[in-house]
Amino acid sequence: MEKIRVLVIQTKANINSKEESLDEAEMMIASRTRKEVDLICLPELFISKINLINLDENAEEVSGVTFHRMSAIAKTNKTFIICGILEKSNGKYYNTALLIDDEGNLAGKHRKIGLNSFEKHFITRGEQAEAFETKLGRIGMVIGNDINSLGVCSILAAQDIDIMVYLTQVPFEFSEVIRTVALSRVMDMPMYLIISSIVGTSSISRIDFIGLTSILFSKNLSDDIVCCQPKDFVIDRLNGDNEGMLESKIDVEELKELKQDSAERIEHGLIDHILFRPDEGGISI
Asked: Is 8:50 a contact under the CB 8 Å cutoff?
């Protein structure tokens, strides 16, 4: 297909009622869907934010109100939507990302695996990292600390994902850590990384969150030895201080071609063999 048109939404950290939060998200989407959009991404727990105290009040089943309202938007606008919810299932609670296809169907979900120390008191850990085959490409989803887990990300890398959607809410003091990890992931994995985050101060936790909404892609795919500055990996970035929307395009078909070209070049694991083993045909330096 042609370039994929992406709309990444950065919502505010302040907590409103579920209905108000959904209304605000729908208004933001409606202001942009007059243009054709292929993929819309909303942040981790974009309805409940980090308010995990009143779990039962904020949680919902996968087939709950958030899914139904986002499903209607997806079907009406023929777009895929990825969004985060606080899921309730069989008496347990999960921090979950939903993948809704352009017909409004649930095409996949991911339950957060890398729970932080606060979440572990309330939330059940997910058990599976999975790639989902879609008309947009192979999509993997991660939430919050999942991106810090080499185990989680390597499982998705082994499934040859084209797009990793990272839903998050990052406290200000951890912003540089997450930026660094995000860069390392796109350097290691041939994919587009889409980050959708919240921003501002939570009215309940009083935690300040930094907006990191952006799209990243590794220049190293086109040349194994290219040397880039961190900014060179950022295709687009939203202002980190305010809620808003990032509109961009990604080219998965070009990505697939670059993957193939890269696979035909010297593998990184062979560099040591070539340079430092002259007795086996390498180059002595």
From this structure: no
